[in-house]
Write a structure and sequence with these properties.
Elements: H1 2-12, E1 16-31, E2 42-43, E3 49-61, E4 66-86, E5 89-111, E6 117-131, E7 147-160, E8 166-176, E9 188-200
Antiparallel strand pairs: 1-3, 1-9, 2-4, 3-4, 4-5, 5-6, 6-7, 7-8, 8-9
Length: 201
């Protein structure tokens, strides 16, 4: 145990720390007051959907307490509970997975006697890769804005493996400030939380 604490303490002295991680996202959309229109070919919903994520990270440690941290996510957002017109009927419970490359940049504070707890806060920008609905799998990318942005926060815990590696578990959230629906001022915003694990080195 003492050796593990010593390893974690020495790791805090590293100026740059990298990470690899993966996890699961839960996401939903908040809709504008006048967004829903039965005459549209489809309407987004506010239901929760679950999708995987993958990411890499780099943190520059100014001192043992404070760092600047950046990540690059292959991120999934979107919402469920929507509907789509299909001839003379409507398909319900349609979900809309939106795939992004998301780049959060955050301040990170580390604390605890062994300095194994950390919290982050900052902002993010996301670049849309694809947008579909699960009923016909139709490509809807042109209906959405190419970028998303907003605020991000998170908390995590590290466990030393050896002198150079640490296992981490973390939870983080992204709170969209951008209207992601193209050409619709009433559009939608993304809300996404994630639970992830990974390795720092």
């Amino acid at each position: 145990m003492i050796l593990g604490f010593y390893s974690l303490s020495k790791a805090q002295d590293k100026k740059v720390e990298f990470g690899l991680g993966f996890g699961i996202n839960s996401s939903y959309l908040t809709l504008g007051n006048d967004y829903v229109d039965v005459n549209k070919p489809y309407n987004l919903g506010t239901g929760l959907i679950w999708e995987p994520n993958l990411f890499v990270s780099a943190a520059y440690n100014f001192n043992p307490t404070w760092a600047l941290k950046a990540k690059v996510y292959y991120d999934s957002k979107g919402g469920g509970g929507g509907y789509k017109k299909d001839g003379t009927k409507n398909a319900t419970d349609v979900y809309f997975p939106l795939k992004y490359i998301t780049v959060p940049v955050s301040a990170q504070i580390t604390w605890g006697r062994e300095r194994n707890w950390y919290a982050t806060g900052g902002g993010y920008v996301g670049f849309l890769l694809s947008a579909k609905e699960n009923y016909t799998n139709k490509d809807l990318k042109s209906d959405f804005s190419s970028t998303d942005y907003g605020l991000t926060t998170g908390i995590g815990l590290k466990f030393p493996i050896n002198k150079s590696l640490k296992f981490f578990i973390e939870a983080d959230g992204q709170f969209g400030l951008a209207n992601i629906v193209a050409n619709d001022p009433d559009g939608a915003n993304t809300i996404r939380t994630a639970f992830s694990v990974g390795i720092n080195f």
